[in-house]
Amino acid sequence: MKKLLYIGVLLFLVFSLSQARSTDSTFNSIEGIVTVFQSGSSRELAKYFDSGIDININGNQGDYSKNQAELVMRDFFKKFPPVDFQLLQQGSNTDQIIYYIGNYRSEETVFRVFIKGKKEDQSIKVYSLDIVKGIK
């Protein structure tokens, strides 16, 4: 009887850990960032930020802490609520440095988004975010 209980607990732990890893990989991949831009959640986006991040929104540039950057992006999403975000290009300069280019569309405007980050322990840490107003 004890063996069945141990096997049951072991299977439960294995299943729980595999579910946790699949959830973590969503937060550590570009698909997660795309989803966050589509939903317009500054709180979820900030999970991808490095401890310090350079943000440039239409020429208004600044170096921000993770918390400050979340507030900047909250204001951006509030002013330009998302309609869609499409990833256009992705690449890497080295094994650690990565970049992504996408289109963020709000009701009024289309923005080109340039994301620069680094791979760190199976995760993406964004250190630069450029959002440039385009033509709709």
From TrEMBL:
The keyword Signal applies. Residues 1-20 form the signal peptide. Keywords: Signal. InterPro entries: DUF4783. It comes from the Bacteria. This is DUF4783 domain-containing protein. It comes from Shivajiella indica.
